[in-house]
Amino acid sequence: MDRRPIGVFDSGLGGLTAVRQLRRMLPGEDIVYFGDTGRVPYGPRGRDTILQYARQDIRFLLSQGVKCIVAACGTVSSTYPAEEAAALPVPYTGVVGTAARCAAEATKSGRVGVIGTAATVRSGSYEKALRALRPDIAITAKACPLFVPLVENGFIEPGDPVAALVVERYLAEVRASGVDTLILGCTHYPLLRPAIADFMGAGVTLIDVGQMTAVAAAGMLGERGLLNDGARAGTARYYVSDTPEDFAALETMFLGEYAGGPVERIAIETY
Length: 271
Ligand code: DGL
Fold this sequence. Notes:
The chain is α/β, with parallel strands linked by helices. It folds into 2 domains: 6-94 and 211-270, Rossmann fold; 96-209, Rossmann fold (3-Layer(aba) Sandwich). Helix content is 45%, strand content 16%. It has a 6-stranded parallel beta sheet with strand order 4-3-1-2-9-10, with helices on both faces. It has a 4-stranded parallel beta sheet with strand order 6-5-7-8, with helices on both faces. It is globular. The structure holds D-glutamic acid. D-glutamic acid (DGL) binds at residues 10-12, 14, 40-43, 73-75, 117, 120, 148, 186-188.
């Protein structure tokens, strides 16, 4: 049993889709969240920059006394090296492995789609994980760079014509390739689920990496005996690298029923 908080981070607010699921699954856990809102998006950047940012984000969370690090970001999960993660003083998990496992189990046709940021798709991380599980899988991967700004600007209502148009542009070739399972490989994308589900059709299983992050974190803590005893309701503290007011304006969209909790700005470049 370990009462220290779970440390979760993302390039911005997308990782809050994972926090929402974590709070649902592990209501007794305390959470410290860092969203790098001053430097979002990470997805279009090069590997070295993403690594430098990820290392600072992790150092900040470690300074908060967390019991584990959860990279609730497809881009960081696809870039941060496993050897470096293994050398951290607390356990680490990203989103790729669990999402790939879930997709490999879900597909019947053996055709799986992967969508994510440019850095995620360039890294081939989901493909490698999927092929390690099922070498026969056929994968169609597509970077969807406009999805993150769409979400952050609130174009997420079911039936939103702008979201529908962008989804169609990006996903036409993925749908045409006949996938029966699609990994929403970025933690922002679960918020576009209605538009994506509408376009892909009812026969396609969507794998939500926000939820997969929470499954991965809960599994890791359970295996290592690091779960809290659940004797009281967990709390959440949020840190951002840009104005807390902007966070407050968007948090309900990402956190739903779990919105609320103190938000503080930190100087991430000093970590
Ligand atoms: N939430 C990040 C991810 O899961 C994407 C946002 C960004 O490009 O920084 O990849």
